[in-house]
Structures are given as C-alpha cells and as structure tokens.
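Hi there, hope your week has been kind to you so far. It would help a lot if you went through both lines with me. No rush at all, and the record is pasted right below:

***
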Amino acid sequence: MEIRRYALLTYYLVMALCLAAAVLMAVSTGSTPIAWQTILQCTASKLLPAGWVDTSAVTKADEVIVWMIRVPRAVVATFVGAGLATAGALMQGLFRNPLAEPGVTGAGAGAVLGAVLAFVSGWSTRAITTLPICAMAGAFLALALVYTMATRDGVTPVPTLLLAGIATNALLSAVSSLLLSLNIANWQIAHEILYWMMGGLDSRTWTHVWLCAPFVMLGWFAAMIYARELDLIQQGEEVAASLGVDVEKAKRTLIFTAALLTGASVAVAGMIGFVGLVAPHAVRLVLGPSNRRLMPSCAFCGALFLVSCDLIARTIHPPVELRLGVITSLIGGPLFIALLARWHREAAQ
C-alpha cells in the first residue's frame, strides 16, 4: 500500500510539473516570444508584495503581454480543462458508460443556447460578464428540465436520465442552430455565434478567470467528497444503498456538480469537445477505476490537454488563430479511438 501511495504521489507530481511546463510554454510562445525569466519576474511581481522582486529588466510591453493577455488565457484553459475532465469522469462513473461526456445531461447544449440568446438579443455587448452569466443560466435551466423529465416519485433512474439528456441535447442544439440560421444575414452576430459554437479562448481576461475558477474549484471539491459514493454506485444502486448511501441524494449532487463544472467551463470557452472523454479514459488506464484517484488526475490531465491544444491553436497557422474546439476534436478523436482499441485488446486478453 505504501509503495502504491508513493507511486500515486509521484504520478501527481509529474503531472503537476508537466502542467506547469505547458503553462510556461503557452505564456512564452506567440507572435512576441517572451523569455521564461521575464515571465517569472513579471508574475512574481504581481503576486508578491511590492519591492520583493526586481523588475527593472521587464518592459511595460512585456508586462502587458504576460500579465494581461497570456497568463489569464492560460489560467482559463487550465480551469476549463480541469472542469470538463472532472465532469466527464463523474458522468462516466454515474452512467457506467465510457462514452458519457460532460454535456450528456444537457448542460453543454443549454450553455450554448444561453450564449446564442445573449448574442441575438444584444445582451452580450452590454458587459463582459453578460455572456458567461447567460451561458451558465442556460446550463442550469437545461439540467432542471432534464431532471424534471427523468424524475418520478422522487426517484431518478439513470437510463431515463440518459435518454432525457440526449433528447434535451438534440432539442437545444436544434434551437441554437435555428437562431443561427435566422440571423445568418447579420454577419456580425452569425460570426460570433459560429465562433462560440466552435469554442475558443481568444481575448480572455482575468474577469473570465474569476467567473470560471471558483465554480470549477467548488465542483472539484464536491466531486472529491462524493468520490466514495460514486465508487459504490458504480457497483450497483442496491449495493450502494445497502452500504448506507443515500443514492438519490448522491445522484442529484453528482449531476448538479457535473452541470456546474460543464456550465462554468462552457460559459468562458464555448463548446470544447473530447476533453471530458479523453482525459478520464487515459487516466483510468493508468490508475484504475477508483474515483478518489481519478478526480485529481483527471483535473491535471484535462488541464494539460487543453493548455497544449490552445497553444497549438494559437501557433500552428500564424497569424490566423484556429478555433480551440477544432483542435481538441482533431487531436482528441484519434486519441480516443486509440484508447478504445487498447481497452478492447486488454479486455480480450
């Protein structure tokens, strides 16, 4: 047990170091390369009391590029990746289905519809916070609709919840596409809606960090607290109930937590695919099915994956920035197929 615990801590440490290196590379790379020493000096000067760090070699341009443009974007990518990966692990565990993903309960489609309504109505131009707030409201309204349809006499069967989520996803996605079609003549609105649907982290600021980070952290802590209950529910609801788990309360909490993580992520990044599919699968192959191990590892893996994909989206075809959702799908799709092929080979042995 001690050796296993030591190996687990080593794994967490390696993942944390890889994530830190990816964030540092993301901040240093771009149309204006920034030395890593400058990045550390600029960041330390903002986080530590005045006078503790010598910033005489840091120019005003470097400070703006690092602290106002690239660091917030990298931080948002970190939290969005961690949130989507954790939500994916929760949904795969609850539905006992490796193909479940963060938006299976309609939260993702609801967030997109909320954002589309903000674009169409013009609310998105009133304040920088309007669009994320509308997206999060859409996510929770979609979850409420799904949960109401799936619940009868205080009981929410998982298969019914899955079917209600699939139907709601299709309906809300169709409404979003309808609004896009009706506004296709207005190039500005259609352009904003289409880019939002493809996902991206361009022009993200510290405001987006504060809109996303608290909810992702709250959701992650809730996922850790209910990891044991999720492990037991995966063995069967009857088994979990016999071991003292309030199954319906646990399911409500897990569903709400996944919706919170998904809504907060989609609210600041748009629709980002495959993070919630690839990260839990990859981690589960390494660490096994225990959700107490999966949750921290999925957060690290999802954050590392999205920060890396965002770096590729910014730099692969300069000066044009590709949409992040396109990059995650192009990379995540083949990775997911490879993981499934490996899983089938291991299952056949």
Summary: DSSP finds 14 helices and no strands in the chain. The two ends are 26 Å apart (CA to CA). The mean pLDDT is 88. Residues 111 and 135 are 4 Å apart (CA to CA).
